[in-house]
Amino acid sequence: MPGLELEGVNVWLGAQHVLKNIDLSVAQGECVALLGPSGCGKTTTLRTIAGFVVPQEGRVSIAGKPTNNLPPNKRNVGLVFQDYALFPHMTVSENVGYGLRMRKIDGDDRAHEVEQALTMVQLLEMKDRMPSQLSGGQRQRIALARALVIQPDILLLDEPLGALDRKLRDQMQVELKQLQKKLGITTIIVTHDQEEALSLADRVAVMFDGRIEEIGKPVSLYETPSTLRVMEFLGSSNILSMLVHNHEADGTTLTGYNHYSVQVADCAFNVNERITAAIRPEHIQILPISELSTDTLEATTLECVYKGGLVEVHCRLSDGTQIKAQSDASSIQRLNLVQQGLKIALRLDPSRLQLFRN
Amino acid sequence: MQRSSEYQAGGYQAIVHAIAWVTIIFLVFPVLLTVIVSFNASFFIEFPPKALSIDWYGNIAKIHRIGHATFISALIALASATVATIFGICASLALVRTELPAKAAITAFLVSPITIPMVAIGIALVQFFILIGTAFTWYSLLIGHIVLVLAYPIRTLVASLTLSNISLEEAARSLGATRRQVFITITLPQMKPGLISGFIFAFLISFDNYPISIFLVRGGLTTMPIELFNYITQNLDPTPAAFSSLYIAIVSVIIFLAEKRWRIISYAIH
Amino acid sequence: MLLATTSFSRTPLSFWKRYRSGILLLAPLLVFLLCFYVIPLTNLLAQSFSFSSGDANRHDGWTFYQYLKTYDSARLSRVLIRTFRISFITVLITLALSYPLALLLLRASRRLRTAILILTFVSLASSLIVRNYGWVVVLADGGALNSLLIGLGLIDQPIRFMYSEGAIIVGLVHFAIPFMVLPIYGSLLRIPSSMREAALSLGSSEWACLRNITLPLSLPGVFGGTMLTFAVSMSAYVTPLMLGSPSTAMISQVAAEQLLVQLNFPWGAAIIVTLTVLTFLLVAAYASILRKVFRATV
Questions:
Q1: Which helix (H) or strand (E) holds C17?
Q2: Could you list the residue range(s) of the whole structural domain that residue A59 is in?
Q3: What pTM did the predictor assign?
Q4: DSSP H helical ranges for C155-264
Q5: Does the beta-carbon distance from B19 to C238 stay under 8 Å?
Q6: Which one, A118, A222, B55, C239, has the greatest CB density within 10 A?
Q7: Are B215 and B122 in contact (CB under 8 A)?
């Protein structure tokens, strides 16, 4: 029984076609992130699951039960909002216990459940405080406890870590993942932060313009995405135009600008076809100009940006293409390549070169 | 193209909206009826009208000195609103941008005229003016109205100024503007919502006022509400209905245009 | 340590320096209010502590006679109670009508919202005399309401609606609705929509959400609106004058009668002062009760 199923969901808001034929199947206990730029429809999808948006076409099923036109207060969903939406006029325990109160769970039972939930997020001592007295991170955990105490069929998180500072965010990422795995609750996370998506989710669905462009495990999405758009959205990438030169027994030769040629293992494109190749900065090897050859590109250094352990080398090919290469600081220093205007050679790792149709 | 909807809450919404619409009809009802009655040919106020006529509109002039009274009301309202707004600018600047002891107490004092019964203010003022010998003049009427409406521009301007951004003024000063230039080019525009809504409120309250005016006028000095009220108590015909309809029509047009041009309604909500 | 002492010194020179611009800005306004607000009202207040020419056992000097007279007067007690009763009912009805309207404004489209707000503004801008006259048209013996009821066959003879407490309440409610709707609507606007959605997602019905979330969080607006409505109703003069009768007189009318007709200034003054103080006390009590009951963030 799938934890969540969206079939052919179409949503129009006003005259705008906001969700186009969304199909999504999430296993029970799985954590899926909806990732995409603003306006891509990820929040609308979340709101459709919660019941605040009624799709014109398609079906939504939560924990195997179709939701039809169930209003939001009849679906057993746990929703954590971007602004946490804690009720400012109620104490922490009253906030956390609100869902139980609505389910007519009162007295000692309710107090017990509330305490358990607060212990789970390690904030039991705050139970009589008001939300205004809590820090951002604490408020987020209370919002989480409030959503989880009702034992929902599915947990929906809207930009959960967006408002937190760097350190807190890293910490919460780990805690959130642990909690999700421990409870085994189906979870959907909406985010525009790819790091959040890649680190928290079992699978990531990348959305553009109301459609799911691709869905898969974080690793495969990052290393071997199916479309250029996904590749460009996740992390950095360098785009090069190449020509399929020849298919051989042990691989395909691609040629690029200025006599550059490289042999790749898997190429499904035809000979003489122009394709787009993309590669991540960390898969580009930076070499001194003395090692220039047919399988390296000649480039001029523009800027070196130190990122504390890693160095980003921004350079330019002779045809003007901007390239971003990345390497660890020690190897850069060894090669003494830190100067602006210096000519260098770049070797692209053929096994990491992603090929896309033009 | 099909239209998909946000979730609507059935029964609850129906009941709440039903009451809301009843309230709207309640608000509009007397106005509508007044307009209809103004076209009634019959002498008495009766509904529904058996015959229609616009005679009563012609009879408006028969309301004792109504043209003169309306003119005075308008002038006084304009003047008192202007003075009150100027006072309001000074007060809000003082309360929000400068240091003062016991600001809460001062604010409460400045706004207090609203909480005093108008009759009290009217009586107190007429006695005072009799004492100093300037009673029943246009300027004592003006002073009475200024006291009446003062609180409104002060409230809206303080709210406006509190919401405005002081760093804009500081930025302007750092770019070399003098205090006066900063005030005219930065502060005043930011106060615009409070200025407009405060002025309009003051104007309306002044124009409409009866309890204070009734004590401060005599003889040649009179206001529109007073003359209208006098006519209503002394006559039974629907002439006041014609006048009211005309008045409401003019007011509606002005408000409609003001909303289009200055979006006063959004400003009044804050 | 030395610096701290210097900046907090309280010599008269530094007081003036510190508050100079504020005081200068406020000075004309304060002088104006002093002359034409404080002094006249104080004069009136002072008069309430003296005897009028018609009083028995009169003497020069201070006395509480007028206030005792106010306290003893049976008629005045009736009027006071009636004024309070009318104001209280007015506030309740106005609230019951205005809150749903504010909720409608919240959900309405921009065009509908603007249209309703313009209507509200026009209602506000129409002279009180004009508006009450509208109610005369509706409530008169030959007016719209009676014609409607007779036309529907519900009654045979016209019902005398005018010149009654009910008519006054209708007029006051009509006057007060804009004063109640706008603050409540402003308060509702400040509640983030995620509050309601959070409550719903937790299983709350719309009614429970209204009761537990929306109402408490909109309390500042409700509070402001009801206070204003109450104060305005207590001191109402024109509306009871036009829609009521001598037997439904409210306090302001009685005071005006003493001051204008009977020319008994001391007693009239005492009545007005009593009204003002009473209203103020009631409003203050109301404020503290509200804060305790709802624990709302004001």
A1: helix C12-33
A2: 4-233
A3: 0.84
A4: 165-189, 193-201, 206-209, 215-217, 219-234, 238-243, 251-256
A5: no
A6: C239
A7: yes
